[in-house]
Write a structure and sequence with these properties.
By secondary structure, this protein is an alpha+beta fold. It contains 2 helices and 3 strands; from the N terminus they run βαβαβ. Helix 1 runs antiparallel to helix 2.
Length: 84
């Protein structure tokens, strides 16, 4: 089977979108990319967020510390606001 994806440092998105999380309330954090191949700090941050594996989701209370964690792994997760 031929390889369909070859990683190269210059390939990929030039810029990640800004985090548009609400200033209060809760947010749903979904891991959209695997932590394999990333540093131990990123894997530890994902574990601290409560994300155990790829495609896992957690609902967290929005705070400054949460935003700092999300900023570290913003290329691995997707953040959406939770209604209610």
């Amino acid at each position: 089977m031929p390889r369909t994806f070859v990683w190269h440092p210059s390939k990929g998105p030039a810029k990640t979108p800004k985090l548009q999380a609400p200033t209060d309330g809760k947010v749903k954090v979904t891991q959209v990319r695997s932590a394999i191949g990333h540093s131990w700090r990123m894997r530890a941050t994902l574990a601290a967020l409560g994300l155990r594996h790829h495609q896992a989701s957690v609902v967290q209370q929005d705070s400054a510390s949460l935003r700092g964690q999300l900023k570290k792994v913003r290329h691995l997760v997707q953040v959406t606001p939770v209604e209610g």
